Recover the amino acids of this structure.
């Protein structure tokens, strides 16, 4: 059986605030189940939530790595332009 956790428990596990998790739920970043009619309570599958966080983290690290590489390349071009050296 799947282990389900509340938004509060997800915040404790992940280090994110409850507000950030609720925003993520509304934006569709995290899969969830809504329980109840009026004051809906959101439940998250524990394992799926952690996998989703891991995938988001890996994606963010890859984007940062590519951005750093692009930044380095542009700095080299700028430096060469300042020194008036043609890049080979």
């Amino acid at each position: 059986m799947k282990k389900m956790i509340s938004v509060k428990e997800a915040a404790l596990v992940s280090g994110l605030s409850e507000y950030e998790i609720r925003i993520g739920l509304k934006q569709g970043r995290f899969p969830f189940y809504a329980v109840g009619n009026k004051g809906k309570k959101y439940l998250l599958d524990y394992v799926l939530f952690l996998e989703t966080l891991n995938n988001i983290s890996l994606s963010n690290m890859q984007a940062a790595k590519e951005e750093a590489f692009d930044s380095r390349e542009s700095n080299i071009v700028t430096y060469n332009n300042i020194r008036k050296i043609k890049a080979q």
Notes: The chain has three helices and three strands.
